[in-house]
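FORM 7B - TANDEM STRUCTURE REPORT

SECTION 1: FIRST PROTEIN
SEQUENCE AND TOKENS:
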Amino acid sequence: MPLEALCIVTSLNHDGGGVGHCDGKVVFVDGALPGEEVRFRYVNRKRRFDTGVVQEILVSSPQRVVPRCPHFGVCGGCRLQHLDPVAQLTAKEGVVREAFTHIARVECADWAPAVAGPIFGYRRKARLGARVVDKKGGLLVGFRERRHSYIAPLSLCHTLDARIGQRLVDLKGLMEGLSCPEAIPQVEFAAGDEAAALVFRHLRDLNDEDIRALATFGEAHGFAMYAQAGGPESMQWIGGCRTPLRYALPAFEVELAFGPTDFIQVNGETNKAMVAQAVDWLGLTGESQVLDLYCGLGNFTLPIARRAASVFAVEGAAALVDKGRANAHQNGLDNIEYATADLDTTVLADILGERRFDAALLDPPRTGALAAVQVLAGRKVPRLVYVSCNPATLARDVQWLVECGGYRLARAGVVDMFPHTHHIEAMALLTRGP
């Protein structure tokens, strides 16, 4: 059985790899682009498909570009830096279109232009892995390798916010000087508009010298430094900058505070454009009563509240509800009511009571929001804006809304929250009636 073979690549799969055929069998080729003829090396062979990695490009795609990052191909953080950014958006839209066609069995006639922002230096949230590997020279700090669970050691990262992306060597040096670098498996980075933070998860207690070294690093580079021995409740500030983490949405005159381990959208500028589009698609007036599900810290809630009469915001995590409430108070918004509920169950119907809504926004996790959309359809909410990070579960929920809920898919579009990666954010507008 040959170790290498030739194939012509026809498309990209959901992981950003090339899709072709060889000897009548589908093959997924990492590093290949549509339109290319490549020589590839087999990595795995299965009954229905094979996987491989590019060895030689015989015919190159005109959309192929030279990756900026020297770690591209090894680091698993990015998979698409070799594809022109405009072509990346086209490919991602294609994935969403395909999901609607083959899963939802619906077509969307109105595709919005992609919501996009900066493609480098955009990532304001990240979890970096760390591991001491003597055979590789000691401490490794970076993301996972593309095809393995190993840590890819990084000297820099062009997609990370420059405050950390250009200081990875300094971070590694700091950790090498600690008493227990082998007991720090992860460093979490979070950046607001003005301040940034580093959270060191440690499996053994840090000593006084470690704390001083971390604090000194934070003061020198402008980071708030945190240590975390267990769950999120164990995180504590140990030195460095004290400026709270915040980001602003100027178009709506709101500012949101968040903690270093809280979920926020990773691309700040793209998030501003995404929020503006979502609010526009909701079709709000000063009389609108709006439901915001999976509301989190208030990324959509507060902007909606600036445009609507009232917002009922629901979130599954009580701690996030508390922070959302605090953000509303800090922004002088008193037209928001909050509730905590498991949105994967039918309990939502009981919490909503007899409230009437003109529109609803959903921003669920990757698992989607099937239980929630069934509740909304039962109440015949006229207008739904669904923000999704998983085209497959988005399409599944759209299928139910169209086939069983009386809705139509009125508009859709992609949001380029994660340039150069295979991750896809999308937005869909569903309406009832003619």
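SECTION 2: SECOND PROTEIN
SEQUENCE AND TOKENS:
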Amino acid sequence: MTPKRPEGAGAIPKSVESPALSSPGPANLYAALDLGTNSCRMLIAQPQGSQFVVVDSFSKSVQLGAGLERSGRLSRSSIYRTIQALRVCQQKLKRNRVTRMRLVATEACRRASNGGEFMARVRRETGLHLDIIEPQEEAQLAVVSCAPLVSRKTDQLLVVDIGGGSTELVWIDLTNVPPAERPKSIMRMHNGFHSSDGSSPAAKVVDWISVPLGVATLRDQFNDVEDDSARFALMSWFFEENLAEFAPYKDEPPREGFQIVGTSGTVTTVAASHLGLKRYDRNKVDGLRMTSDEIDKVIRSYLALGPTGRRRDPRIGMDRQALIMSGAAILQALLRCWPTDRLSVADRGLREGMLYAQMSEDGVLTDEEHE
């Protein structure tokens, strides 16, 4: 069971500025904004049962981290683009009279020497107060957002969130949790990886890691490599090298009872290509299960297309084509480490995690069984 979303508010479009589809009271509305290295995205939603319905949304590529690898600072042009996008978000929050919200910034603002200065400028020019969150909270929110996709048959779970500037991996042991309680035990992690309400066995986090390589930062590391295939191979190898400190790295689990949930624009784009969609459809992509062979086939087709072909592919799109191969390199490295027949595609992420966390905190979600 997944959150309901207005038609057209998928993960791939360059910019989404949907009008409010209904006019619920402001007391019933929640907002979540995720300012990442590449994109600025926001959802405004209303709780409905054990899920929520989105009433307004915004998504735009702002490339906040452009040039960060080289200079260590957020550039003037990146700051300008981002503030313009945040002004649109502020207008939507004001129009919907939202008072319950969580607005966060991630890797680019964590790493930039002028990240704090930028946050102050955002407050001054837009009135929005964004928190620069730590990697662990980013990982927690990604895990919570994927709770509805966790199978009751899953004993070992790996949640992967491929961002623009970093990639979070969380390994969770569910063997001590009754099968019917497994999705709910993931939802309870909004209070922390080791939190429990004491009423039932808790999911156990075996290990987690935040790799400071995402689709934008990994691409920038190998911009000087001209050959497309060589650049891809180097990116995949380099990312795998950065997994050495992750405890479960060398221990391949049995395929039975093991599930990877992947959340990112890369994963949803690969899924759309696998399905042959002419137009992105979140309802077909979110929750889709793909085998490693199916994913590898899509990645090989991207390499065969080359840069020019990928730019023309409507499933990739102009906004995603510059980042798809670095994301695919990360995905390939993960599948090389942990072959699985159960990779679940999640069109969801920090925003959904923040919404679930706020609503759970307020007790406005009903305690229904996950499908």
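SECTION 3: OBSERVATIONS ON SECOND PROTEIN
The chain has two domains: 15-134, 137-346.
The two ends are 6 Å apart (CA to CA).

SECTION 4: SIGNATURE
Preparer initials: ____
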